[in-house]
Input
Amino acid sequence: MVKQGVIPDELTKPFYDAANEEKLVIQNCTACNLLQHPPAAACRKCGSGDNMEWKGMSGKAKIYNYTVVYDTPIRMLQEDQPFNLAVVMLDEDPGVQMYSHLPGTPVDQVPIGGSVEVVFEATANGQKVPEWRVVG
Amino acid sequence: MTTPNAPDSFYHVTEGQGVWPHKGKVAAVGIGHSPTSRRWDGTPENTVGANSILALRKAIEDAGVPPDQIDGLVIDPVTTTGAHWDANDPVPMDIVNFYNPTDDPLDGIAKLSCEWLLKNMPELKNVKFTMYGTGCMSHAIVVAAQAVGEGLTNNCLVLKSWHNLEGRYNQSGLSAAENVSGSYAVGPGRTIWGPPGCFGTALQFAEYCRKYGKSHDMMAPFMENSRRNGLLFPEGYWAQHRPEQLTPEDYLAARWIAKPASLFDNDIPIMVSGAYLFTTAERAKDMKQKPVYILGHASNRGSGRSLTPTLEEVQTETGSTGRKILESAGITANDISFENMYDGFALFHQFHIEGLGYRGMKFGDALDFYQTDISIEGPNPILPSGGNIGSGRSRFWMHTDSIQQIQGRAGARSLTGVKPEIAVSGGPMPMGGNFTVWGASPD
Output
């Protein structure tokens, strides 16, 4: 299941550079001590862009819930339908979500609340992105 | 002349603002709709601009107000149903020049400005006030109501229009690209993970069912009721083009889009325009139609913290919205005769009405409520307009129906189990919508 290629932009380059090194980093506002994802130019809480850093994560998360996608608008994924599409929440902060196809998990057999750990997948142009596998 | 967006001061966005200062001083007195169609047929007579002119003229005629007395115009300038004009596609200049164009050739074809409308409706020669309420008729209504209340305009047209082009929903552009930008790839909307438009709602609904022990099958009575009401709405898409009742069996057999959201849980994108005329309560007294008074309005500007709002975040916001709606009109939930909250996607209507506390509902109650009599003949009508599910995606059927029910002009859809005196309508999303309270009396 190959995803569209990703071309990092200025905002997201640290996130993708880390992914190529198989590390997960998330934006953090040092003033608010608050993680945020997706990345943004400024902290969504205090509005300042002066205190943003990239913070390493453990790569552990829990599955919030999921759907099974039968009709995606993304052309490159259409031949892989149906597929799981879950939202996972980081153990460091459940308020931070990431999408996952849960590679290795059969369609519609997703353990809600189950533990997952990060893996890194190459997209169509070789850029790696975080994915998540069920553990335990 | 450049039309501005409404200022922040127009909106009731926080609890504790109290009763709307202009309660009962603004009234809806005219309604107009264009015909519906599935897509633009490529002719000048069927553009989003043409439909808009038609709807506006019908609203003026319905109200019986001379066009030269119209002094305000509030619209949503964004008209896409998800169909965007490809930058590589040539613009049909014969269509553009069929009308009086603005500097933007796609104005009137794939977007809409107040300036384009005024250039092409010469009878509106005294419009001095224009403003945008972007995204939805629910937004434009709040802006127009506030503008009339503040005396910025006395006779104000409100318009929402849609264009729909060839091609499948949201499947062109970035969806078809080999490579995308890093920000897009990890963003909250369409991403490289491929969520359809209904993904967030489907996810919230899945969590709702898990938390309260409900199931997708329990939506069937709601869907049947919505299509039934939609087929009684002569202005709607299904009534005009595909007068087919949706049965529970049809619904349960429908293909999935993002399970647990199926095809019918998504409203069908269409071409259509709808317009209203608002005026002061004083002026409305001696007009052609019975005035329907605006008792209050409220807005939600909440957003999820990360990619997709959780059920908990949605319920926090809809609960707050419900309190603001009631507060703005100085009413309780028990005063509401019927509700016309947003429904396109079907799977979030329950979030709206539970937040509102309609008929005493609490979180988790709505799907059980759907198993009771929710018809227009019963004491607890749900979405008598049929909404976007019942008549296609206009984002205004619920407003039209609220006005028509209170005026006694809803025809075959007329409520018989309740006396239509106070209605609440609005949306679109449970997080990020605008809502209006309508009344038969200004008090």
Q: What stands out?
A: Chain B has 15 helices and twelve strands. The longest helix of chain B spans residues 311-329. Residues 226 and 266 of chain B are 13 Å apart (CA to CA).
